[in-house]
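User: Structure tokens for this complex, please. No commentary.
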Amino acid sequence: MSNPAPAAGLAGTRTSRAAEATARGVLNFSLGLLILAALWWLGGYMISINPKTQSFAGFGLIPTLQSFPELWNLGKLQNAITASGYRLGTGMLIAIAIGVPIGIIMGRSKRFRELSNSSFQFLRMISPLSWMPIAVFVFAAWDHSIIFLIAIASVWPVMFSTAAGLAKVDPAWFKVARNLGATPVQMLTQIILPAISFDIFTGIRLALGIAWVVLVPAELLGVTSGLGYAIKDARETLSYDHLTAMVLTIGVIGYVLDTCCALLVKRYSWHRGDA
Amino acid sequence: MSIRGVNISIKGLGYRYSSRGNPTFSNLMLESPRGEALAIIGRSGCGKSTLLHIIAGLNRPTEGTMHFDDKKIEGPSSRWVMMFQAPHLFPWMKVSQNVGVGLGFAGWPEKEKAERVAEALKLVELSDYADTNVQDLSGGQQQRVALARSLVMEPELLLLDEPFSALDAFTRASLQRDVRSIAKRLGFNLIIVTHDIDEAVLMADRALIMAGAPGKIVHEFEVNLTDPRQRQDPAVQSMRARLMDAFHTAAQVAGSPAENAEAETASEPA
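Assistant:
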């Protein structure tokens, strides 16, 4: 018979350690942001007190924060986020729809992997933005060109991560599943996808980072909506507070998206010891 | 659980890994009646594991035929299930999900599936671990889950490919005893491939010694011992000695001093 008192004590110690670690994490996170905000404020203050740079005072922390209600009331913020979100989401979905199946074929078929490796590595090394002139010729709408750029930038991490995940899978799992009567569809949905979900989400996380970085410069060209366009528009109207507010928005959304992906990676990881 | 065994008939079976290579074995004949526990003993590389994979339908023979109760065998089926050397459980699933995975493939309704899984877990004495992640189990417990995963399919034939060789002596002994007792109670056939002579004596009704290249069955022994079988029982010791002699003779006829050394290692009492 086990003694409940020491077990309860042990559980209590574990809980208090976990709470302590969470508190430390929150503190460090807040402190890091606070230091960044302080440096920003200081930079803005120095710009504002210097008569030569005073006209750029809008870049400072306080004017930037003050511009958010105005941007919201004008609907600029929502419109920019919606337009960019649509392009990012569609581009990412295309990248996942192409990258995951091809990654699975690469992981399963050595012949396909050998045949495709040189072409894929070559295409992967082409800077996504260099496709822009071709995309503009091929697609009638600017929106479609940007979606194409996001898809072509983000397909490679998804594809290679999926293939690498499948290459690590224990081949005996396939033998066991076949032995227990799995059909090819069941093998895919119940064995392959759960086995490599960690790698797929890791690839999506990497792809999202790249897509987000590609999105903004792509929106600086041609289109009249989105976060990139909003930055260009603010620069041309010399609204530096609006410009910095949009930059801040890009950073916050990027951080939130990355955190969501990290949570998905953690949720679907079955490897012991993965954070 | 209602399981019945199967009459196994193998005629002229042969296998080559490549069309130009030497056969792993050829013209192999084997009959096993319903409910029999059959052990195939042999050194590494004699083709015993390949034979087991072919019987499971996971590999196709290059010659010969196999019939289970007059039905020609041409591929895998959940009616003849294989347990491998390692448990190969799916680590993203809980114990109960691992056990029920084959029933899921067969499209069983959730309620019936849960009942069968609970029954199989009870058989292997893991009912309390149904909701545990398989990565939190010991090696012996994981192998019990693999056994439950096989038993839940109510197979007519359970094929075991050195399934306990990676386990410690105590766990191995307990699983050897349990698998034989479950097989006898439920009435399904067992085919055990092993290089552990003790395992063959403790688990089988009949033992075949496979040797040579290409591999062939060189000796056959009826293991007429009463259950439960104890390692220290004189009758078990005597049968072990007979199998040892036959194993040595087969190894000397078939091969090198290295093979004889392996036979010594294989026969070390656990």
